[in-house]
């Protein structure tokens, strides 16, 4: 006889795929014992820079039962964002692929709420919360526990069949489900391509990132002026950075997404170097109307462009 936990898990995973998620895995809501000392050490060494929010809710980051009362399961999901086209001018300032389309927070939250609603309708009253990159949840650790993939040397979660160009999200629910086996094998082997390719040497050692050196941090999180020591190391990036993913051999398996809301503004892809150097606030608002790039604001993006333009 199939248990309720097994039956519920199967219908949840089927609905997740129907909603457009690429993978769905489930782990038991428990204390992340293995991650606790790693997180503490990373914070103590100030590798998080100005991301002070990483210091908050330390206990909640390690135990989902402190986020959702009586939580039993962490449902981990991935959503592909690999584009079928990229910026056409090789000399133009570059923007990370994940920010080509609509802000992923909006897109994924909507899908998560639909999935949570489905669970309540099909199974019964279930308490739970949806998380997308904006709450104290260690999403890569949970995705690994849910069997989706392993954490690579660049600290991104990698899946053997689809690489790493995908978003991570979670539903934490007070429902007993059938749990997937944790992904145990590290398939990076002796490869160090991501470490060798990082323009700013932000990957201090396998699995350890100094965010203060990461181009994504410098162009998005950092609110003050970028240190001049990075002047010739930005590799033409004005928002985010994809270098460590672009060189990863596992991303040869990346396939274009099928999410209409991630389709980029055509103008974004065709703008030439000169267009970016002369970008106005009105053009910024038009291109990035519903984009994650709005997080930097016009002032932040032009700061980044001004910083790299002498090397363009």
From TrEMBL:
Binding site for cob(II)alamin: 61, 133, 154, 157, 168, 216, 241-242
Residues that, per the record, bind [4Fe-4S] cluster 2: 198, 214, 241, 244
Record EC number: 1.17.99.6
GO CC annotation, single: cytoplasm
Key words of the record: 4Fe-4S, Cobalamin, Cobalt, Cytoplasm, Iron, Iron-sulfur, Metal-binding, Oxidoreductase, Queuosine biosynthesis, tRNA processing
Free-text comment on the cofactor: Binds 2 [4Fe-4S] clusters per monomer.
Cofactors, names only: cob(II)alamin; [4Fe-4S] cluster
Domain 4Fe-4S ferredoxin-type: 179-207
InterPro entries in the cross-refs: 4Fe4S_Fe-S-bd (IPR017896), 4Fe4S_Fe_S_CS (IPR017900), QueG (IPR004453), QueG_DUF1730 (IPR013542)
Subcellular location: Cytoplasm
Pathway in which the depicted protein is active: tRNA modification; tRNA-queuosine biosynthesis
Keyword Cytoplasm included in the entry's annotation: yes
Enzyme class: oxidoreductase
UniProt KW Iron-sulfur keyword: yes
Catalytic activity, as annotated: epoxyqueuosine(34) in tRNA + AH2 = queuosine(34) in tRNA + A + H2O
Reported function: Catalyzes the conversion of epoxyqueuosine (oQ) to queuosine (Q), which is a hypermodified base found in the wobble positions of tRNA(Asp), tRNA(Asn), tRNA(His) and tRNA(Tyr).
Family (UniProt): Belongs to the QueG family.
Protein name listed in UniProt: Epoxyqueuosine reductase
Taxonomic placement: Bacteria, Pseudomonadati, Bacteroidota, Sphingobacteriia, Sphingobacteriales
